[in-house]
Amino acid sequence: MTDNILEMRSITKTFPGVKALQDVSLTVRRGEIHAICGENGAGKSTLMKVLSGVYPHGTYDGEIHFDGAEVQFGSINDSEARGIVIIHQELALVPFLSAAENIFLGNERRGAGGLIDWNRTNAEAAELMARVGLNEKPVTPVSQLGVGKQQLIEIAKALSKEVKLLILDEPTAALNDNDSEHLLELLRQLKAQGITSIMISHKLNEIAEIADRTTIIRDGRTIETLDMSQPEATQDRMIRSMVGRDLEHRYPERTPNVGEELLRVEGWTVHHPTQPGRVVVDNASFTVNAGEVVGIAGLMGAGRTELAMSLFGRSYGRNITGQVFKHGQEIQVHTVSDAIDHGIAYATEDRKRYGLNLIEDIRKNITAASLGKVSRRGWVNSNEEMKVAEEYRGNLNIKAPTVMALAGKLSGGNQQKVVLSKWIFTDADVLILDEPTRGIDVGAKYEIYTIINRMVAAGKAVVVISSELPELLGICDRVYTLAFGRITGVLPVADATQERLMELMTMEKETAR
Amino acid sequence: MSAATETTMREPVPAGDDDKGAMRALASALTGNLRQSGIFLAFAAIVLIFSLAHDQFLSPSNLTNIVLQYSYILILAIGMLIVIVAGHIDLSVGSVVALTGAVAATLVIREGQPWWVGVLAALAVGFLVGAWHGFWVARVGIPAFIVTLAGLLIFRGLTFLTLSSISLSPFGGTYYQIANGFQNGLFGGYGVDVFTLVVFGAAVAVYAWTAWRSRRARQRYQQQVEAFWWFVAKIVVVAAVVMWFAYQLASSRGLPNVLVLLGVLIVIYTLVTQRSVFGRHVYAIGGNLNAAQLSGVKVKKVNFWIFVNMGVLSSVAGIVFSSRMNGAQPSAGNSFELDAIAACFVGGAAVTGGVGRVTGAMIGGLIMAVMSNGMQLLGVETAWQQVVKGMVLLLAVAFDVFNKRRAEAAR
Q1: How many other CB atoms are found less than 10 A from the CB of residue B47?
Q2: In 3D, which of A356, A360, A348 has the Cα closest to residue A385?
Q3: Is the Cβ–Cβ distance between B35 and B42 less than 8 Å?
Q4: What sign for the dihedral angle of Cα A416, A417, A420, A421?
Q5: Using CB atoms and an 8 Å cut-off, which of residues 349-388 of chain B contact chain A?
Q6: Are residues A335 and A387 in the same domain?
Q7: Is A351 part of any domain?
Q8: Band (B9; pLDDT cuts 50, 70, 90)
Q9: Contact predicate A501/A469, CB 8 Å
Q10: Which of the residues A56, A302, B136, B220 has the least number of beta carbons within 10 Å of its own beta carbon?
Q11: By the CB < 8 Å criterion, does A359 face chain B?
């Protein structure tokens, strides 16, 4: 008989009006890495909140057995006391405290008289950090560490609590490939040390690589648990279970119909805003044609976002030099409103922080960048505005009861559709989309791709920046590669493979010449 | 339109579900926008309690008194609301009230200039003060808390210098009439001023007509509107309360000048905040500065004009206050900024910016005004008045937080 560390039996959790979880069961074996996947809003996070005591016992139906006994957690402290630690997508570290202080936050190593024993704190922190493969000093403030290393601090913090079951919510969503690889390797090591992990993830490759078993949740129900060593556990099978329909293709069909040159950038060079002398984008030149989807591939730190934001009204960087041509004419783009006037749009990679006003409704977000189109002499025609917003809600299939719903209450995919609506409504003919499908579930991704296709079919040009190479290969006509601030190549999609792109994306300065 | 569509259409503000029956329309109108209706209900309850506790509370002369006594705080609260929605704060308005009053008093009383010279000079000083704050906040990028804290000291000091540390009085004449005069007697009357009633009657008619027009416009654009009976009931209730208030004023001394001024300002600023591009940009900046910037909002320019506006409204309040006091004192307007800020927060503005309405701030200010006045009538000690007002501010915001949490949990 297999040894199960966790059994969640028939969990049902109801919110007023919504059944978030319905008869969900989850069994996790001791020492395995168990992946949970499902579309956004499928109920993964709710299930983990039930498990960790965020929703206390009594607010849900069903039983939880952990480590051989039934447990009834009243709060997150109860679950941590039993060795269940959850690491959320948004890291919960205090930026100005040191690594060691963060690791023992709320769990301080005390000495005589209840005062903090700093020697012990730092020594034990150093041990824990070594265990997670983090080569930093314990006294370093976490604000000086990258996201990948901060993630490791979180894990070290979990280890300090003698964790038995580690839950990671989208641990690699914000990490680059190197850091992701490191994190997955660490999970394997922890597994060897007997720590069980539950990992919520959208990245099917990653799941295939690391998980022993995968449970798929859809619409608040468990669909199936796959043994990843079995041949039937393919990515297509997982996608099918997640979306509940056959996705023949992950990318919608499109007949390329590339027209004349729309935008040309020449010799674009951008310096770091605060570190003088550091070149972030180095002499970049590229063209985008009407009716074309152009990809920009590059690793984290290659300067992709910096290139896009500096083009978009100099929203990033200083000492910017270079020329921009639209329809062959040189244009001057010094502010965001210049960019909008010239038909350039930029949808940011971080929609919550830079793209949306979360406390306003959908309607006001959609018109935010072109309020002039629904107003006369400085006064907004709110009826006209409402009409426009309703049109976009319908056309882009934004799932919300009305356009008066707050942007902050929408799921990631629907938020992204609001952002796209905003930029389409500016009548932009060059749309730069930075990670347009990050944190979005499979079904909504498909819809976003369809919207991109509709835009290029209407003769617009779309530039897609993405970390997911299959996505670029799936939707682009041409792909530029960016490495260390330089454009190292451009490939028509027919000639491009992931390996070839990766080669160009890692090309260093000398060989780039 | 048919009866069937009539009942299914209603205000879409609360995320809508289908509507059956009148009670549910009423319930959802009350709970859907609990913060907005809650504040009105609280205001009504407070008025009711004081009117039961003291028989003179709702007397014509006392109502007139409340309007005169707190008008300048309400004027300040209008500007403050915009400042707070944009995510800033202005601590200097009390000092600016004093300085602008002092400038007017120096010109009119000491130099013997006509009243309008004093008014224009005060407005100009308010504009310059606002531009000064705007420069430091918008161009240099110093937090408004610091800039206006410095302003609080600087402009108080300049008030003392302007007045050579002594009070100036009296204004007399037209300047005195600004805050102490009434519009009445134009149409005569028998113990009740007909002119006042006519003005209020016209205002109610305009309100009903615009409400009807906007309802029709919404229907033309095929948006949901509230059920017809509810629409009518709302207008009838508002009209009844307003006309009752008008009758009280009319049977006292007529229509106070400051009430006209305040009414005009409220209408203008409600439109500016709810309907203008500038107003929309203010909410965008307060809601998410980065997103506003990346949507092409000229953040520096908007912030600059927010403070200029605050400066000008402070000078309007300064004129009204000095007129009401019939002179200028070096310590005038002390802690007005705190009353104005409290009015905004009681009225539902968010400390983090992005949320708040002019009407809310006005009701918030009136709640504080009615509380002070009522407690004075009842002979409550000043010390206890402060304690009670502090508690009201705290509980109003706590209620807000509680509501938000409940809404989150219901998701």
Answers
A1: 16
A2: A360
A3: no
A4: negative
A5: 350, 354-355
A6: no
A7: no
A8: very low
A9: yes
A10: B220
A11: yes
Type of residue numbered B330 = P
Partners of B411 on chain A (C-beta within 8 Å) are: 15, 409
Spatial separation of the C-alpha atoms in residues A128 and A334, rounded to whole Å: 49
Residues A189 and A231 in one domain: yes
Mutate to test the interface with B, among A357, A406, A423 (most CBs of B within 10 A): A357
Q: Which of B10, B35, B294, B351 should one mutate to test binding to chain A, selecting the residue with the greatest count of A CBs within 10 A?
A: B294
The long-range contacts involving A269-276, CB below 8 angstroms and separated by at least 24 positions, are A269/A319, A269/A320, A269/A321, A269/A322, A270/A303, A270/A306, A270/A307, A270/A310, A270/A316, A270/A317, A270/A318, A270/A319, A270/A320, A271/A317, A271/A318, A271/A319, A271/A320, A272/A317, A272/A318, A273/A316, A273/A317, A273/A318
What is the Cα–Cα distance from B313 to B97, expressed in whole angstroms? 9
Q: Which of B125, B64, B183 is nearest to B322 (CA)?
A: B125
2.120.10, 1.10.10, 3.40.50, 1.10.3470: CATH of B36-184+253-404: 1.10.3470
pLDDT in the model for residue B105? 95
Is there a contact between B15 and A404 if contact means CB atoms under 8 Å apart? yes
As averages over each run of 10 residues, the pLDDT of chain A (513 residues) reads 84 76 91 85 83 88 90 89 86 86 87 86 91 88 84 89 89 77 90 91 83 89 89 81 65 86 94 84 93 89 89 90 93 93 92 90 93 92 90 89 85 90 94 88 85 93 89 92 90 87 74 42
Nearest CB to B294; choose among A348, A358, A400: A348
